[in-house]
Amino acid sequence: MTQLDARPRVADTVSGAAGTAGPDGGVRGKGLGKGSVGLLGSAVIGISTVAPVYCLTSTLGSTAGEVGVQMPAVFLAGFLPMLLVAFAYRELNKAMPDCGTSFTWTVKAFGPRVGWMCGWGLVIATIIVLSNLAGVATSYFWLLAGEITGDPGLAALDDNKLVHIATCLSLIAVATAISYRGMTATKGIQYTLVGLQLVVLAVFVAMALQKASAGTFDTGLDFSWQWMNPFAVESMASFTAGLSLSIFMYWGWDACLATNEETTGSAKTPGRASLIAMVVLVGSYLATGIVAQMAVGSGDKGLGLGNPETSGNVFAALAGPVMGPGLGVLLFIAVLASATASLQTTFIPVARTVLAMATYEALPPAYAKVHPRFKTPGRATVMAGAATGTFYTVMTLISENVLTDTIFALGLMICFYYSLTAFACAWYFRGELRRSTRDLLFKGVFPVAGGLLLATVFCKTLIDMWNPSYGSGSTVLGVGSVFVIGVGLLLLGLIVMLVTERRSPAFFRGHVLTKATPSLVVTD
């Protein structure tokens, strides 16, 4: 008999059949295809889900418009809480490599209700992002068709609401089918799409640097180290707005953690992959932001990044001037590849979170089924695709403003479940924090710091959302519609949770997945 952690070992608790509980309410096996993803594949999935080229074209100009030349500093500031939270994910994954990630871990730390709401936040945020990605991919599909053929009529088809919705639903169906067929199919496609967008981005950076050195554009600026100083932002409101955009640009790296049960070396590989993905992302963002600012500046005139007429789609404005009409088309292809790749991989975390919630009886048992051939959460994947298509169609038909405000509310969901997961890490490992300096930092100090930063952004965003000017400017009874949507989605989660609790009380009574802490107990 020896003194060991009370944390159940994975080998002891993970069964080969879905729905078979391990001892002491431990994590359960779900029947996913084991060993189908390695370190590189896992990192690629994390990068792909974030969609760096898409994020840059949609937020580079908006961030510059908020914070001016301090845009690179804000990219770094947004990276900090994500890095700190990534340490929390890594430590929790070592202890419990479960595809439910945030849901499972917060249940083990704080109990079933907090964990259920954390899982709800992840699922809703992902559905919103999937619908947005599908819309962007659709727009770029028709824009690229018009560029290649030289026919503006093709590009104009995107303005036809029925054509746009039909194209969008087709893309969602294709992405759902690929995810349904398993990680092997997903991984092969992602290598191509991620490689393409990173290569094109590197070409853009090189050519923008050449244009900056030659002083091609009158609005260009000389590099200054002052750009890296976040304290030089003129106001706290501007800094917070820029930080919210920056945090959104990193969201999705945790998708590689959702594949932990399908990854070789499930206890360590996903955590390492997430850190690799974060480094690649921050390097790409800094390089692109700095050279773009050097080439065209961050002002609101001409090609300046802060020009409101082009800030929503920076690469569409810079492709021709920076890369020329021939190579500029590659940038359109890269944005389409980025959005399409992310659309496909973003199904991974939502489907596996739903699978885990169903396996632990927090959702209907039908979603706990794994496809016998592809070893994927088939029914959960189809559900995610159907929910995405329905959500986007309804929002588009109701109002473009409602759709826009829903996307603005996304930041609230991201900060909500990331911060809960970070706090869960420190609380779950609270008995280990005095064992070593490493445990104190990586299981306690860093996760709490990251959680506090994101919780602060959550509260500040909640306050800002109350103002009708936030988002599209539409209101509901005098309150900003972004606030109504964001808070409404969280309240909807509470209602769904209460209904689920009546139908499946065992999970909510702690009989299925129990709270735990790594305190010392006697075990074999």
Q: How would you describe this protein?
A:
This protein is an all-alpha fold and 524 residues long. It has a domain at 52-401: Amino acid/polyamine transporter I, CATH 1.20.1740. 69% of the residues lie in helices and 2% in strands. The protein is built from 20 helices and four strands. It has helices spanning 10-13, 39-50, 52-67, 71-95, 102-110, 112-149, 152-156, 161-180, 183-214, 236-250, 255-258, 269-296, 314-345, 347-359, 378-398, 400-408, 410-428, 437-466, 481-503, 505-508, and strands spanning 2-5, 475-476, 479-480, 520-523. The strands form two sheets. A two-stranded antiparallel ribbon has the order 1-4. A hairpin with a 2-residue loop joins strand 2 (475-476) and strand 3. It is globular. The termini are close together.
Main traits of this protein?
two-stranded antiparallel ribbon, Amino acid/polyamine transporter I, globular, mainly alpha, 524 residues, disordered N terminus, 20 helices
